Amino acid sequence: MAMSRLTRVPKLTFAQAALGVAVAAAAIGGQSTAHAETLGSGTQQYAAAHADHPETNVQAKAKISAAQVLALAKAQVGTSEDAAGGGTKFQKWYMNSPRALETVKRDGGSRQEYLNAAWCSMFVSWVGAHTGARSMVGWDAYTVEHARWFAKNHRWGQAPKPGAVVFFSWSGSKSLDDIQHVGFVVKDNHNGTISTIEGNTGNGTVAQRVRPTSQVVGYGYPNYTG
User: Fold this and answer.
1) Three-state SS at 28
2) d(Cα 95, Cα 100) in Å, to the nearest integer?
3) Which PROSITE patterns does its entry note (predicted)?
């Protein structure tokens, strides 16, 4: 089973883990109850979504709604990893994406190692790409860098909104450096919890979850049309 956080450790392989949740570039640390995500196989929307770069186009408002993104995410519920903790369409897509070349250069390791790496952030990225919302949702295999991208583009906050990308730390830390897992907000339950759709959670599946907001580091806000 894949672990929950893909961490940035340049010049180390993805298989090399440090104490706790820190792991090397394509490995994702964390708990069996939540994992990091990867993007899935290419489609026409994916090709169109790669026309621009998310680092500079997060403010571009594509005609994509939160409801569309959540519908595609929900349609993936039940998708599961193999016995080696990988083999999902999300991981295969990410491994073959142009972004994988960039993140390997940044973090170390090799593209091939994404196939069995924790895939929660890759799942989020896949959904964004396959709805044509990649420039708003971002794409990364490392949860911390995915969150930093939202913060850098002034799309970061503490209010749960449907379709927001939610980043978790099981310790309750509010530091981006401590992020271990990521998913999509479905709704605020107004009782100290949120409903989510997450990849690489539980036994390595896409599932709907209810999470305490005390474990939320923050939220990334795609610039949806509605």
Assistant:
1) strand
2) 6
3) CHAP (PS50911)
116-174: per-residue pLDDT in tens? Answer: 999 999 999 999 999 999 999 999 999 999 999 999 999 999 999 999 999 999 999 99
194: tokens are: 């949120």
Find all residues with CB under 8 Å of 177, minimum gap 6, and list them: 144
Task: Please compute Rg for the chain using Cα positions.
Answer: 15
Say if residues 96 and 89 touch (Cβ distance below 8 Å): no
Question: How far apart, in whole angstroms, are the C-alpha atoms of residue 104 and residue 13?
Answer: 10
CB 214 within 8 A of CB 192: yes
Instruction: Report domain extents, the chain.
Output: 5-220
Which pLDDT value is given to residue 60?
Answer: 47
**Residue 13: other Cβ atoms inside 10 A:** 15
CATH number of the structural domain 5-220: 3.90.1720.10
Look up the pTM and report it: 0.77
The tokens for 20 are 């706790």
Distances (CA, A) of 92 to 50, 65, 76, 119: 17, 26, 15, 10
